[in-house]
Each structure stands twice: as structure tokens, then as C-alpha cells.
Amino acid sequence: MRSILLVLSMLIGQLIFAQNKDVISIKALLATQEQAWNKGNLELFMVGYWESDSLVFIGKNGPKYGYTNTLDNYKKSYPDSSHMGKLHFELLSIKPLGIEHYFVIGKWQLKRTIGDVSGHFTLVLKKTKKGWKVIADHSS
Question: Counting C-beta atoms within 10 Å of the first and last residue's C-beta, which end of the chain has fewer, N or C?
Fold first, then answer.
């Protein structure tokens, strides 16, 4: 019985360690996106997204699919530094959905000379060979 409890506690410890490592990686990814945005580099910002036609971004105009469509929409909506402003994320919740997926809830804020804007977001992230990637983004 003791050996079963020992094995269980070791497995739980490994799971907690893996989750903490994943949360740290996800926070680092979002911080990198924030920095890229604040430098005006949308291509670098998009490195955090899954480069796939199955990527979904849901905004005020409904769902849009695909990495290229998402990048093109960002470029259209934020054509210059006055529209991009300075981005800040506030992470409210990071929860595992399984071994390879996480669900993130947060707030975003753009400080801009043309007027500040803010909202909330939910992200689904997937662990890929290239690291954690956003596979679904609902921002409002």
C-alpha cells in the first residue's frame, strides 16, 4: 500500500511540476507578444499563434479562420503606431484543459494617442513541436 501511495504522490508531483513549467512558458509567450506589439512588429507578435488554416480568431465581426487572415486583419485594424499604441496584458486565469491544452482568460489594454481601448480575451493554447501556440483567440 505504501508503494502505491509513493508512486501516486510522485506522479502528482511530476504533474504539478509540468503544469508550473507550462504556465511559465505560456506567460513568457504572452510577454513576448506584448513586447513585439509594443515595438510595432506584428509578424513577431504572430509567432505566438498557430500557423494553420484552423487557427480561429473571434472578434466583434465573428469568427475568422487562418493564420494569414488573422495577420491581415491585424494589419488592417492597426496600420500604424498610433493605432497600435502600447499593449498590456493582465492575466486573470491560466487553467489546463489536459496535457497539451490550456485555457487563458485575461484583459488587454492599448494606450494610444488616438484614444485608449481595452477589453477581455480568452485563449486556447496547444503545446506543439514549436512550443505553446494560440489556436483560438476570442477578444472583445
Answer: N
Helix H or strand E encompassing 113 = none
What is the number of domains present in the chain? 1
Give burial (CB, 10 Å; 0-12/13-18/19+) of 37: buried
The model's pTM? 0.85
pLDDT per position as a tens digit, 38-75: 999 999 999 999 999 999 999 998 999 999 999 999 99
What per-residue string of b and e applies to 83-117 under the rule 16 or more CB within 10 Å gives b? Answer: ebbebebebeebeeeeeebbebebebebebeeeee
Which residue has 504572430 as its cell numbers? 46
Residue 9's CATH number: 3.10.450.50
